[in-house]
TrEMBL record:
Family the UniProt entry places it in: Belongs to the recoverin family.
GO biological process: phototransduction; regulation of calcium ion transport; visual perception
PANTHER family named among the record's database cross-references: CALCIUM BINDING PROTEINS, RECOVERIN
Keywords associated with the record: Calcium, Lipoprotein, Metal-binding, Myristate, Repeat, Sensory transduction, Vision
PROSITE patterns: EF_HAND_1, EF_HAND_2
Native species: Monodon monoceros
Domain of life: Eukaryota
A molecular function GO annotation: calcium ion binding
Protein name per the record: Recoverin
Domain EF-hand: 61-96, 97-132
One Pfam assignment: EF-hand_8
Amino acid sequence: MGNSKSGALSKEILEELQLNTRFTEEELSTWYQSFLKECPSGRITRQEFQTIYSKFFPDADPKAYAQHVFRSFDANSDGTLDFKEYVIALHMTSMCKTNQKLEWAFSLYDVDGNGSISKNEVLEIVTAIFKMISPEDVKRLPEDENTPEKRAEKIWGFFGKEDDDKLTEKEFIEGTLANMEILRLIQFEPQKVKEKFKEKKP
């Protein structure tokens, strides 16, 4: 899945990314040049991904969440992302359609990759999300979701599952589409990220 290390993005990858994301050729070409400056090898490591993610959230601790996002997009589990995987990650976490986002969200919450989600895995991701929410915003959260434990309990309750039950991808997607409250509780879409994406336009 690698890209050439030359200064130009291959026509095939460019066309594929334009087809699968909402990014323009201009945006993709500009980001590719920046990507090569940051990662001359043409691949980004987990640590480099965390560093870039941290720039989006200077006032928070996105390390744990960034690790989970990285894992969910490291398709071949080689510990790196190439430019194509990186752009798909940006797209899926910011502006793709709900169904696509839920497929990605399932892989994010399926921490051990066994094809189902446990309540503990929900708590692990929600805990990572809370590290990115400012104390002021946490204070404004409803009483029944103002801690990771409460939010995980609320999400699990919406699915009607017992503590030791598992959630399949089908149950996760159908349950979330049927209840927009679940969608609100499981995702984290900081406005700052979207603003950063816009800033990267040449």
